[in-house]
Amino acid sequence: MSKENSSHSQFDITIVGGGMVGISQALLLAAQNPDWRIALVERFAFPQDHEETLYQPSFDARATALSLGSVQIFQALGLWKKLAEHHTPIKTVHVSDRGHIAGTQICHKKQKVDLLGAVVENAWLGRVLLQSLRETTQIQLFDGCELERVCMAANSAQLHLSRHDEALLIHTHLLCLADGGDSPLAGQLGLHRATQDYGQSALIATVETAKAHMGVAYERFTEQGPMALLPLGESDQARRCALVWTLPSEQLEATLALSDGELLTLLQTRFGYRLGRFCRIGKRQSYSLQLQMISEQVRSSLVVLGNAAHYLHPVAGQGFNLALRDCVALTDTLQDASKRDQSLGDLSVLQSYLSKQQNDQDLTVSFSDQIVKVFSSQKLPKQLFRSAGFLALALFPEAKQFLAKQTMGVAGRLSRIGADENKAG
After folding, report:
1. CATH class of the region 197-289
2. For the domain with range 3-195+290-408, which CATH number is right: 3.60.21.10, 2.40.128.100, 3.50.50.60, 3.30.70.100?
3. pLDDT tens by residue, 218-243
4. Domain segments of the chain as ranges
């Protein structure tokens, strides 16, 4: 009998949102406690083919930069061996400021780790997560379901779902909301979202370069905004990179209208020749950039996760990595509560989770926000400030070590699931 046809409607934990964060949270919970009854609700239907299909990397595939901390989490889940079949190690992070000599590099050897992080194409990351989800019988999947309404009560919640002509009712002790930055359920529940518009948009594409990337991830700050190039191709000698190019929103339309040749020339001007010439660019995508913070991450029987809780600028690649650390911290807290026979939806339990994770969140959000504001400005005080910042990175090992820890995703609270890991390969 398939998970979809199961008649159970009572769960300990229900997750709304079947993206990378939602599936990761479900898998972490199942790995932590085999007695928890877990449901995952997703609006869109997942592929019905349960057999593993051949992986065919696409030139236009989007990718995620996993920090070392996230790699360790996937190791603990037993998923990294599979993910690593199609990953590109990040061995060096190169940070520079266009028009200024100062810059810095973070090298995996100096940090005494095998890698600083890894780039995995989203198509492969999603496939591995979904395969693991399908194989975890503890998790009941409700995909292709519309969430009609949610009724919150003391230490419980009721979810009214519809799938085709079928009405479904789920009772759960804890509801985890992980349905993205434009979460309709957050609005339905009256959760206020504070939004700060950066006046910027991200142009995303895959590019091919004349020189091999050698496992280097580039963060380049320009007068228009930051630009990131992440290594792709599963080898130091590969010549593909994932481009995240930040532009003023008023320039986006004109930039997207450029021919491939014109766009490559402009990209060359902004980035320089560290990777030789840019030879090719794939399909372009774009989206506006904002900082969004939910007003209440926890309520009785409710916790908000991922982009639904905090939607960050992609400049430092912190969004998914922070969300994954949140998921681990929540899992740890719920396990402790379970051992004390506390209800998983008890507000004090969820406040305990947030208290433990607050420092990591504040540090990561502030880091992402301030680096955008300082490095996207041509005003003289901020130019001087960022020049001084690069000088500090060169002169003071403590400053560079902080940047390294933030990059590797180990600057905040270390979760027990990955705290004993210090290498990945």
Report:
1. alpha beta
2. 3.50.50.60
3. 988 777 778 889 999 988 899 999 99
4. 3-195+290-408, 197-289
Rounded Cα distance between 422 and 69, Å, is: 9
208 near 82, Cβ under 8 Å? Answer: no
Each residue's pLDDT tens digit, 83-106: 999 999 999 988 877 655 556 777
Q: Do 169 and 158 contact (CB within 8 A), yes or no? A: yes
Q: At what angle do helices 319-339 and 68-76 cross, to 10 degrees?
A: 40
User: Which is it for strands 38-42 and 10-16: parallel, antiparallel or unpaired?
Assistant: parallel
Task: Kindly report the pTM of this predicted structure.
Answer: 0.86
Q: Please report, in angstroms and rounded to a whole number, the separation of the first and last CA atoms in the chain.
A: 38
